[in-house]
Amino acid sequence: MPFTKSNTKLIPLPSKGMVPDRDIERSPVLECINLGITLGGIKAVEDFNLTIGRTEIAGLIGPNGAGKTTVFNLLTKVYQPTTGTILLNGKDTHGMNTVQVNRAGIARTFQNIRLFKNLSVVDNVKVAMNNEMRYNMFSAILRLPNYRREEIAAHRRALKLLSIFDMQNIADVRAGSLPYGAQRRLEIVRALATNPSLLLLDEPAAGMNPSETAELMDSIRKVHEMFQIAIILIEHDMNLVMNICEGICVLNFGHIIAKGTPDDIQSNPAVIEAYLGRRK
């Protein structure tokens, strides 16, 4: 059953984390334990503890410079943690690089769109399926039958993924010529093509108008319902966060200052102070 605010409850775990009630019988998809990193002598993130349920939609919010994207970079091994542990599907990701952690189940988008702008829309999606291809360079050069079979299957799957965002009809359009909102959606489709168990969205609504943001919200819900995966999003649009996230974690100066439901977060004095400043 798709989640709504009326049928979802966060349940505390012995580890002091919280997951949606529907995920309580399953191991968390992600556990961050005392995670931290020092950059240039400054503790950019410190003592970061977070548990994400297997089908949870969670928000990571905070003022500019709070350390949100740094956390995403730690999870995807753009940065290696200075301290702490990351468990993905119960497996310690220590020593993994970005490729390995993607194969293990984490996919992400970026604040600044990173598409192959001179490739077609469908080819941008197929690039992400590289791990699934079962042919070698020799087969590709000679266009052997197994190469053709793999390419046809990849093309069909890419079109199916694009149809989630009603983009299948522009599959052959050059990615760089798409409107901004469509490029954002394409980046999400490409991330989904890697078969993640955890999808990280870094400011997916940045630069979108209210209509595009509403459409994005519906698309995220659709992705969640279809794939039954966990999603964490960094976002400054509080209307989007409060209407789509089940659990929210608030960062400020690299430290967690609050965790809870949207209702908890909206009334939390520490969160209000972080965003608006201390009342004189």
Architecture overview:
This protein is of the alpha/beta class. Helix content is about 35%, strand content about 25%. It is built from ten helices and twelve strands. A six-stranded mixed beta sheet has the order 8-9-10-5-11-12, sandwiched between helices. A four-stranded antiparallel beta sheet has the order 4-3-6-7, with helices on one face. A two-stranded antiparallel sheet has the order 1-2. A hairpin with a 2-residue loop joins strand 11 (about 245-250) and strand 12 (about 255-260). The longest helix is centred in the middle third of the chain and has 19 residues, at about 145-165. The chain starts with 9 loop residues before the first strand and ends with a helix.
